[in-house]
């Protein structure tokens, strides 16, 4: 397992993999990969899990990215593959549609070095005016629902831009597809990992989305409910185990 921490024991971009699902993102991918290269001084590794038929993977390879090819099976199937492929210590997810600010990568890495296990880019606190209105309303509703279920305020459950210490990715079993982004925030939160949300800007999408807002929204709401319930039941079961072990002693 690679580990390139500097003399102060801090992670550098040589410890970072930026990973993404790519599904017909030919128009945007060049800009996204150039931004990552510039901001990380060519040090971050890039992994694209690709399901495209428009030449996206060729552009990815030209830019030095590792490409894993996969049939199109949805956002979460691609991103699950993407987060479990690298062997670096810090995994950053993003979308390949030029909406997320790669210039903020140093802030995400700094927060990991401060001790956070998950650093989540919160688009909604800064307004996300470029997001389609229906999606924005939906995302506010998901944040509200998740906050009520986990008992603390979360601002953006479906953001695509986050950094994770690899230990978190490896410690948890991930089950969701369209709702994977929410799951990747909520399970660590409910297990007591240190999670930070940092406000980010969100740009207008380059190219067409493949996610349907209605069916996708319903799937995300269901995932939030399921994940929160499973985590609460998991805690109760763990509490029961401790109590019965104590009774045996
Ligand atoms: N490989 C792969 N990538 C996907 C799939 N579905 C979505 N993506 C990618 O996942 C990211 C998020 O999807 P996007 O269309 O931007 O969703 P939105 O941000 O909700 O509009 C983008 O980079 C897509 O190219 C899929 O089935 N396979
Ligand atoms: Mg997107």
What is the secondary structure topology, with strand pairs?
Blueprint: E1 16-22, H1 26-39, E2 45-50, H2 56-62, E3 66-69, H3 75-84, E4 90-93, H4 105-114, E5 118-122, H5 133-150, E6 162-165, H6 166-171, H7 180-190, E7 195-199, H8 213-248
Parallel strand pairs: 1-2, 1-4, 2-3, 5-7
Antiparallel strand pairs: 4-6, 5-6
Helix pairs in contact: 1-2, 5-8, 7-8
Bound molecules: guanosine-5'-diphosphate (GDP) and magnesium ion.
What's the short story on this structure?
The protein contains 8 helices and 7 strands, in the order E-H-E-H-E-H-E-H-E-H-E-H-H-E-H. With 249 residues, the chain is α/β, with parallel strands linked by helices. Residues 95, 97, 99, 160, 205 line the site of magnesium ion.
Feature tags:
249 residues; alpha/beta; Spore Coat Polysaccharide Biosynthesis Protein SpsA, Chain A; seven-stranded mixed β-sheet; 8 helices; 7 strands; 14% strand; globular; binds guanosine-5'-diphosphate; binds magnesium ion
**Relative helix content:** 40-55%
- Top-tier CATH class: Alpha Beta
The CATH superfamily label reads Spore Coat Polysaccharide Biosynthesis Protein SpsA, Chain A
Mean pLDDT: 96
Biggest sheet strand line-up: 3-2-1-4-6-5-7
Radius of gyration (Å): 18 Å
Count of distinct strands? 7
Description:
α1 runs parallel beside α2 (56-62). This protein has a 7-stranded mixed beta sheet. It contains 8 helices and 7 strands, in the order βαβαβαβαβαβααβα. The protein has helices at 26-39, 56-62, 75-84, 105-114, 133-150, 166-171, 180-190, 213-248, and strands spanning 16-22, 45-50, 66-69, 90-93, 118-122, 162-165, 195-199. With 249 residues, the chain is α/β, with parallel strands linked by helices. The chain has a single domain (13-248), classed as Alpha-Beta Complex (Spore Coat Polysaccharide Biosynthesis Protein SpsA, Chain A). Magnesium ion binds at residues 95, 97, 99, 160, 205.
């Amino acid at each position: 397992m690679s580990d390139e921490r500097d003399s102060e024991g801090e992670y550098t971009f040589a410890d970072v993999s930026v990973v993404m699902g790519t599904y017909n993102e030919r128009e945007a991918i060049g800009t996204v990969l150039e931004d990552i290269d510039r901001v990380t001084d060519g040090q971050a590794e890039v992994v694209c899990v690709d399901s495209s038929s428009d030449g996206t993977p060729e552009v990815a390879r030209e830019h030095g990215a590792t490409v894993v090819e996969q049939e199109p099976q949805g956002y979460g199937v691609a991103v699950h593959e993407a987060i479990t492929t690298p062997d670096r210590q810090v995994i950053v997810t993003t979308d390949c549609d030029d909406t997320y600010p790669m210039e903020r990568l140093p802030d995400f890495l700094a927060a990991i070095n401060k001790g956070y296990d998950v650093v989540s880019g919160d688009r909604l606190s800064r307004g996300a005016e470029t997001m389609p209105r229906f999606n924005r309303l939906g995302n506010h509703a998901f944040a509200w629902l998740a906050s009520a279920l986990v008992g603390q305020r979360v601002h953006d459950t479906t953001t695509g831009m986050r950094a994770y210490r690899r230990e978190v990715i490896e410690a948890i079993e991930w089950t969701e597809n369209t709702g994977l982004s929410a799951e990747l925030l909520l399970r660590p939160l409910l297990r007591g990992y240190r999670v930070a949300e940092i406000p980010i800007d969100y740009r207008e999408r380059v190219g067409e989305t493949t996610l349907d807002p209605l069916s996708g929204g319903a799937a995300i709401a269901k995932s939030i409910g399921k994940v929160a319930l499973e985590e609460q039941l998991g805690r109760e079961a763990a509490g029961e185990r401790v109590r019965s072990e104590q009774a045996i002693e």
